Fold this sequence. Notes:
Largest sheet: 5 strands, mixed
Number of domains: 2
Structural class: alpha+beta
Shape: elongated
CATH architecture of the largest domain: Sandwich
CATH superfamily of the largest domain: Cupredoxins -  blue copper proteins
Amino acid sequence: MTDTRHEFAGLESVYLPIAFVVFGIVALLVLYALVRRRRGRVGEIGSQRKENNPLELAYAAVLVAIVVVLVVLTFTTEDRVDAIAKKPGLEVKITAAQWNWRFSYPAYGITQQSTPTRPAMLVVPTGTTVHFTGTSTDVIHSFWVPDRRFKRDVFPRSNTSFDLAWTKPGLARGECAEFCGLLHANMDFQVEALTPADFRAWVAAHR
């Protein structure tokens, strides 16, 4: 069971410190250049020092090493997030359309669909790998759950498959993250994660 929120939070904890360090170095160098420029005399010729090849090569090597580390970490995380479980605990089919969502549970004969006045409710059990198969009836839509830090496009005439998991009960908001027309802003849904016992009770009440 892969917790996408945890995976991307771990990746963020690597990217952000590096980004802050790079920003700080660039800001200091720009400030240093501005101070030197203000102190220099008009018409004065700048430094004529020769190139320092070892220093430049070391600088380039450090940059390459950082890029390699970030690329490896990113693709490793993506591989874990994109992995599909052989035996998921629950299967949900997603159908996106202008401008609503429909969530179907084939094993239970349950369908949850949004209306003009009520967003669709996606109900999932915690501690379970949920396998999603998504498609669109018209244009490209994007299934986005910010709480899971997860977004995946769904396309017309094709299926998109992915797994998600929720570790604790709670409510979260989902929405379409791909502009899909006039009422795109209204194309949202709710996600409710329930304990396995509460999910079984929900199924019994809705099947």
